[in-house]
Amino acid sequence: MASIINQLGLNTRVPYHFLLYSLSFGGTAFYSYIVSPILFKKLSRDDFSKVQGLVFPHYFKFQILSPLVIAAITPFQYCPFTLGTLAIASLSGLVNLFYLEPKCRGIKEERIKLTAIGKEKKDNGEPTDEMQALTASFGRWHGLSMLINNLSVLSLTVYGLTVAKGLTLLKY
């Protein structure tokens, strides 16, 4: 097997670095901008919430680990800027996994409790003040989570463009 890898020229870290970068950027962007909006439109709110609740812990862990592995297996010499972009991508996943996702989950659970005891709506059908406050709070925290996720995608984009620019400067 090793001789086949050597014959194919895969004895460097370059292909693995680019494959992992492609998977990291592509997976993050695809799930964020294509899969999630489709699920949101096609599933009920409860089903969408259940799916996201199952996916997000894995998604954020991947968002944390993949930039670290990319940095560890790079065949290039990095400048602080490119390492910074990978650090931002990884930190974004950390913030989402350990702070924002639990915050949003807690608010959703409070809304579910209100609904279970019948205190989500007033007699006239309008949401109660408590439900409105929880909904507004969820919107703020979820919006911040989406912003942090976009920061991760943007930082991976900048990293990829920077590496690509560096490659174009190489003399063949």
Automatic annotation (TrEMBL):
InterPro entries per the UniProt record, alphabetical: TMEM205-like, Xanthocillin_Biosynth-Assoc
TMEM205-like domain ranges (all copies): 19-111
Keyword Transmembrane: yes
Assigned keywords, A-Z: Membrane, Transmembrane, Transmembrane helix
Keyword RNA-binding annotated: no
One cellular-component annotation, GO: membrane
Chief subcellular location: membrane
Protein name: TMEM205-like domain-containing protein
Organism the protein comes from: Candida metapsilosis
